[in-house]
Amino acid sequence: MKRSNPDYSTTVVEEKPLETLDYGTQSQPVLKLKRGRQALDASKRLAFELSQFSTQQEILQTLVDLEKELPLESLEVVEFVIRSLWERFYETEDAAVRVKVISLLGSVAKFPGVNVHAIAEELIKLLNAKDEDKTKDSQKVRTQIFNTLLTLGRLLDQEAKIIHHIEKGAIEHLKDPHFSVRCQCLCLIGHLNQGLDGGPSKLESEPQVGAQNLLASFAKDSDPRVRTSALQALLTLHDRGQKLDIAVYDQASLALNDDYEDVRMAAIKLVWVFSQADPERTVKLPSSDEVRLVDDAFIKICHMVNDLSMTVRREAAGLLGSLHLVSQKFLEQTLDKKLMSHLKRKKTEHEKRREIHASGGADSGAWSTGRTWGDKAPEPEIDPEDVSLMSSGACGAFVHGLEDEFMEVRSAAVDSLCELAYRNSSFAVQSLDFLADMMNDEIESVRLSAINSLSKISQHIQLREDQLETLLGVLEDFSGDTREAVRELLCHCVFATRACLHAAIHALLGNLSKYPQDKSSIWRCSKFLGEKHQHIASSLVPELLSTHPFFATPEPSIDDPAYVAILILVFNATAKSPTMLAMFPDHTNRHYAYLRDSQPDLVPQLVNEKSVSDLDSKRFEDGGSQTAKDFFESVQLRLRHVTSLNPVSKQQTLKTAIQDLKHVKSIDSLLSADAECLCLYLQCKLMIVQAQQDKMWTVPAALCTHQSSGLKSLVENILSTSYRVEHTFTGLDSQQIFLLRQLRLIAHALQILVTQRSSRTNERNLNSMLQVWESFLNRIKTFSNFINTENINTDAFCAEVVSFPGFFESNITNPAGVVDYVQSIMLSHEVPCLELHSSLSQASAVLNEPRGGSDNPLCFSAGLTLGVNVEAILENVPDATKVKVQVVFPDLRCHWFIPKRDDIHVLSPTKQRLATTVILSHRGWSEPGLVEVSLVLKYTPDVDEESVLKLCSREDSSTDEETRGIKHTKSAKDSLVDGVINLCSPVQVCIMPKALR
Fold this sequence. Notes:
Elements: H1 42-49, H2 56-68, H3 75-91, H4 95-108, H5 116-128, H6 139-155, H7 160-172, H8 179-192, H9 207-217, H10 224-239, H11 246-255, H12 261-277, E1 282-284, E2 290-292, H13 293-303, H14 310-320, H15 328-333, H16 349-358, H17 397-402, H18 407-422, H19 425-437, H20 444-456, H21 465-473, H22 480-492, H23 498-514, H24 519-532, H25 534-538, H26 541-545, H27 561-574, H28 586-598, H29 612-639, H30 647-667, H31 672-692, H32 709-728, E3 729-730, H33 734-758, H34 766-790, H35 796-802, H36 804-810, H37 815-828, E4 841-842, E5 844-849, E6 858-861, E7 866-875, E8 883-888, E9 894-897, E10 904-908, E11 911-920, E12 929-938, H38 945-949, H39 958-970, E13 980-982, E14 987-994
Parallel strand pairs: 6-14
Antiparallel strand pairs: 1-2, 3-4, 5-7, 7-11, 8-9, 8-12, 10-11, 12-13, 12-14
């Protein structure tokens, strides 16, 4: 049967100017506006078609199409769909169709205003029907009914009566022979049980306990899927805030020995829940001893680390790290391989003698004859069921986890071991050897996890020579992430001996010669090694600086990265041990002054060797911050009165303020971002003031063709600068972003005004006018949506701008009137000043690799690929996924490469490290060429800015466009067309694609 297609109608309206209307002489008939028939709603049409189809395939396809239309448009359509679904349900006998109908009823019931009670009551009646109801013949239908009742019950969570009614129906069907029905009923009870009076169980005084016992009883069901659902329902009760009874803990402990993996997984989680909810409760062991519940749970979970299933072992190893309250004796057993006797506590000889002495008896030490009262009794017979070599309790749990064959288990064990060691200093010392061994793991992620774990517990440990040897061996790893993690670990570690520091220094220098791209990371590591080992480093100074008490040694080159790494370590050690200054040769003091200026973040200020200029600079640093802040406030105060000045004085005041802000930026790093932000905004404001006062507005439009070129360049600068301020400065509020969007709107309007005045009169037809104003109307729409979303307080100017689309529509046949209206608004508007109330931070990037400056080209075969390593430090970039690597080839083709998420590593809340590889390819070149590599920030513009820039290029020749494109690309400015902002200066890399012979 073919589907009925909805009727569509098209209305054409022809308008004629009023002054030309002449009904007596018009030759063409007047078209009248007619109201066409409204198209039938798609969802309503599909619901109507349900009653027309008879085959299962057609009905199911219609139901699937109807599901795709959700959510529906109105309550009237929803009610019609519900009626159609019920009619189809009672008409069909196919189980698959009934299941889909019931599923759709649950989805449609989520629409506000739907009578959920009626749907729930009808479904309950279907369950309770005993006679000729075909629903009872299909377990799939019953399962779906309970699934839909669960959805409806969540919508009616405040209606206790209907919830109790639904729950009662689920309890009655727990005896259903099919496992899926029982599983769904258990899930429903877990999600909807409220523990109110008159609850599901009448055998218990407390309904919560009754529901829990009911669920726990099904943990012994014959079907493993039902057992899993019962335990998961108990977990759901806990998640909903109900306190679980201790009897459930015993049942969960028994389920740990279940034959099926899913049951054991749910049981482990349930045991862990009890250890977190009531850790200090005492429980009895089979040996009649009592232990804390958290200790017993810890032992049980440790035992599951030896499970046959990898998933269970991983879950158990991961949960161990969260049991922070476990006793020390059980915690230490996890690193011991000695087998325990099923947690049976045996008294030591010292305890036995103490008890005999307290009772007044004497221990002769002879063999027992059995004839003396109080003589040592023989050992009781041991039940074979209680003896199990695998039931070793907590003994060696982490050892087994760290030696597991699956990396998932090893990684989880490393994380848990680190978490427990971080909170226990003595346990951290014991676990040091095990974590050090994991740095030799075959999987890189496990090695990284072990290295990061050692970094977290470094405050509790001291590395010995053998442990450090294992650690330094990882520095030879090919993976840059692993090497970086090891150096980060060395920054936090404390060495026990002088030999350890000596070995670490030589390992870093060897690492620097093998991987020169790691220079910045190695220098940073040298800084922390010097800070933490100043007393040990003092004995190594003569060897490190190659000094001799009698012979003059040659002066090392300050351009040698290895020598700089040694100086950074020595200078940082000297900062806390000034006695080392006397050991420095003269050239070291000179090198210190150079490094102090070139690397201020790595080289500290030495105390005893300050010159007068150093003292003056220190004194200036102490008081300079407050002075710069006061000066910055005075600049903002000056800008508040700029609106009352005449145009000439206004421009001069803005230029002076811009120079003052540049000075503030240079003298105080704390105010650098604030000063830069306000400076860029004032530049935009100054350009708008210059555009508003341009002479072209006072001359006839016919003479404006060549006088408007300067104003067009101002518009482009305003747009690009405002985008840079909005997307590179973090901390701007909605009101400040509103001012930036207002700047772009004014600049866009000025661009249109310039275009209209420069264009010829015969070009001002309706079609060209719509093309010119289309992007401006879109910008106004975006501007209006931003105002409504952020609840911005607007003024009269914004009100006129927001109402402009209506004015444009009513005056679309009068282009000159529209231009005059916009010109009167834009040229008279005073752009408000930006007021900064909080400190800002500016996004930036430091490109460490590639370094550039090399005349040796990187050669590769034409048509093949060349990998260029890119390593950079990102600062104050809130979303690093928007950072892209930009490569500009000599032929001005520009490519952007998107780094992977794994290439971005978080160093601190405001600093990230980007390490990626850019793949280049090109045709053969006759000689080497330079490509520019830089980092850019991608953003989404308000509108298509390319259409705005094209407004000023319609009269330009193609040669001018090409020259302008070359100038734009080579100047490395922000690209409005591509929507990117440069975060750093480009680095030139010389490459040479060789042609294949």
